[in-house]
């Protein structure tokens, strides 16, 4: 399928996206000609086995990486051809990430981890800590303001990571297996929180997961297999 | 099992090629510096021993006379007496080679007929193709050592132009002492052997001998000989001569040892640094192996095998580097020994097995010991915790307090040792080592304290990037702590040694400026002027005093006198009022009565070094052998003198003339008025001296300049060692920063993912490195100053007996601090660039 060059109506569009990794001269395609469109405010789940290309697709949509071939559009702007600096600034402003391994900065306190996106986006001018306290209260973690990540449980760390992903009001939230390291109950709580906060503020959420339970919460489910999109279902 | 473990090690290390390379380089550099210094010292010691042996040979005793040497008639008398069968006359002096700048040789005048039993190479000459009798039949001929001939590039039949004590002479080289270089004692010796008559003529010692060598078979024979000699000469064992030569450089070597110990300390830290990184980096892997059932001792075996293998590779490279480095250091040490002590050539490094053994012990043993600490850590924790980096840092943070307390104990021990009433240099060195080590142990805690203070500063509180940088240092203390300690050690070494050399130089300048009261000095060119029977004639003094513009004269005689303690240097002064102002005394005695006692009451002065080495105080007596037997001289005061580290006795000319028959002087001070013309003096001098002897007229400024040139040459090796320690620390910091940044790749990847730009990443990494460098620099300032104080007040005092004031040069201190900062910043460039370039998706995927 050859990529079209007119801007799409959707918030995010991947057209004919291929990502290959090279082992010497041999190319190994992790994604092969994937077409996806995601509307603003949508909660999209990407399902698939390990190695199906879920994380790679998220990295490309989130401008963490560039495709080997194809186009990626965000809000009518192509982001696959942006340089390193521009992609960084794009991510800073428009994307919030939630990782499986939480990925909080261990040398910063909970409050400082939340301050980080605000500071990067220069949103820390007017009473930034009020916003941090508000978010922590939402997470029921007001007492963890000065704690370091290592002093928190896995569930608490992931809740802070969700707050960090949302605090600067990004258009898009990307979550890569956010419950992968958590037990069932905690995972459920974290998913509920993520769904509630993104929908409450009208954010677009794209989540990669193995979990069938998430499907019930999503607006749409995409299934990847062997680097190809094999099914798109609208959740009922 | 071992094969599988070996494969695990091999492949894991292959995955970290840079870390492995830096660890091996760390070991190699540490081993190289220590081996090079040790080889240099061993080569210098061996060359001195060889040179001494080549002169002393099988001689058991030496017959020596007063400052003018011996009358050659004494030799004839001894021969006739039949008391000793094996005796040989000797003239020995150091002479300058006129065609080779800054090179000299030892001239040995012997009797070819009597020589055979004494020096080993002579037997070969007699059995070989050289006709030694040509030395007698052809005046002005010489046999020289093969090493010297090769170095100077002179063919057989070539000429050697030499100068000694104002005398110039030409020697024709007619043979080689050891044609095939087979005599080890001659390998490093610049030796020319001539007939006794040629030596007398060349040195202006007609009718005189330096000494008579003897091979005595029994104490009874010695007693008989002493009886025969009476008060005219002294019989001393030949070891006294050999020991005197060895003692000459002992203090210099002690100082070199102090500096190499500091380099060793930095080297040990680097080895510890490198090994710790390699082990700590793989804690996760070790945790998995433990989780799979690997026993603790099997893990210890694995880590130990790796450490020994890596240590061995680094050590082999270090030994090669050490031998190459030693070649360069030997030249510097050789120059210093020639400048200050003895005519000697240190051409090639003697690669002795004990120096190499020390290198192997340091490299392999040090690597194994260094790996033992983190290995013990990895072994003792539970498998899950072994995989956790946070757990490690928590443990390290906990041990920071212990290290600090250990540092305090080490500081207390070091300070306690200093208070011991000991003059032993070893005690001083141990104390220095403990004190420096104590600050290294305390540096992680001090770094944490500094980081805490920074975090309370407004600018850091406002900037997350700065907070990240500061917290990054304290959060990775297992790496950064050692890096700060290593850099602090190296920079304090730079500051301490810089302050010591600066203080020493400034003291020498002060002393020379004060001591050189006369405007011009007349001395004999080509050194000498102090050996038996040589020097200028006192008869020339009135003629010089009569030259227009000359306001006054003083003169000095440098000589060596047999004393109850061995052979002492004696400086004989004829001083005028101005010349007396050139003396600075230790305990401010009353100058008027002092000079009166010095001139009229046979009192002597002793230099600080002499007083220190011989434990002499004012009021004590020194016993010297005069022409009429031993006599005690009262010590009136101790004076400052940096000319010799073995010390000297100062005596008035009146006293000297009363007890010794030696009319010569070694130098004359000319106190010039406004109408004095030095060129006129130079023009008139040959006429005044009335012989072929030459003298030179040198201004006090020139002497000061030349003295400082020698001083700076002496400390070149110190600077080289300083730089080597700096390079070692730089490699340590580079390897630490690389390890820290590589380990923080995930953290930096997250930062990039959430929108931190490459430039900001650069800022965070550079901020961290600046903090490491700044902390090391700040800590190095007080430690460096303390080190300077210890080197000046303890090591120099106990090595040489010199006192000097510490000059706190702000330039040296600032340069040290900036060196630490610059080294850390430069070391941080590569890791920063690497992290800034890395793609976040790739970094997070790899992690």
In short:
The complex is a heterodimer of chains A (236) and B (847). In chain A, 30% of the residues lie in helices and 28% in strands.
Overview of this protein structure:
The complex is a heterodimer of chains A (236) and B (847). Chain A has 236 residues and is of the alpha/beta class. Chain A has a domain at 42-53 and 83-234: Rossmann fold (3-Layer(aba) Sandwich), CATH 3.40.50.300. In chain A, 30% of the residues lie in helices and 28% in strands. Chain A contains six helices and ten strands. Chain A has a six-stranded mixed beta sheet, with helices on both faces. In chain A, strands 2-1-4-5 form a four-stranded antiparallel beta sheet, covered by helices on one side. In chain A, strand 4 and strand 5 form a beta hairpin. The longest helix of chain A has 17 residues, at 184-200. Chain A is globular, with a radius of gyration of 18 Å. Chain B has 847 residues and is α+β, with helices and mostly antiparallel strands. Chain B has four domains: 1-57 and 243-387, no CATH class; 67-232, no CATH class; 446-516 and 700-847, no CATH class; 525-694, no CATH class. In chain B, 62% of the residues lie in helices and 15% in strands. Chain B has 30 helices and 22 strands. Chain B has a nine-stranded mixed beta sheet. Chain B has a six-stranded mixed β-barrel with strand order 3-4-8-5-7-6. In chain B, a hairpin with a 2-residue loop joins strand 6 and strand 7 (167-176). In chain B, helix 17 packs across helix 28 (758-800) and helix 18 packs antiparallel against helix 25 (700-714). The radius of gyration of chain B is 32 Å and the shape is elongated. The model of chain B has no long low-confidence stretch (mean pLDDT 79). Chains A and B meet through helix 2, strand 6 and helix 3 of A and helix 17, helix 27 and helix 30 of B.
